[in-house]
Amino acid sequence: xxxxxxxxxxxxxxxPVKDSDGISxxxxxxxxxxxxxxxxxxxxxxxVTVTNNTITDIKASGFNYSSSAGxxxxxxxxxxTTESTSLSGVNEFRPFVxxxxxxxxxxxxxxxxxxxSTVVGLHKSSTGTEIPNSTASATVTVxxxxxxxxxxxxxTSSNTFSAGDIIAISFDPTNDANDTNATIVLVxxxxxxx
Length: 194
Known about the structure:
about 190 residues, six-stranded antiparallel sheet, elongated
């Protein structure tokens, strides 16, 4: 295995990385960015992972379920930390525009209360419609039997979307949830973008 070293800058900030024989690699690096040709990531990564045009996007969200038990709310995916029972008039706070075609893989929910039978749904609308459809295209029901415990909502059918769709994720517990955290896992086809 060869050691990699930085060489003279290509421009003001970006520098090529060379192997121990002085041959430039496909990596260029600066303080805030890295440019790589033919990228293959091996090991542990966080956030977004790309493999052969497949992009895994992990979105984290948290909110205080402030509705009456048994009320469907939309998890904040935008610039807010509050859930809402409606997407109308607050479209900029809860929905998210998907940059690529793909699917919702899973949602993991952890709440400070035992929520009981809980429904998580994928809501989407295509180009020409302002907000995601209030009727979910896919739902998964899980019995959240314990508080402070993560539960996985595994989406396996009717969970796809197209590049440019606007999506939202709903959360509908039987019991009060109070402080709730969610992790949403989206999988994109990087070759099918907007």
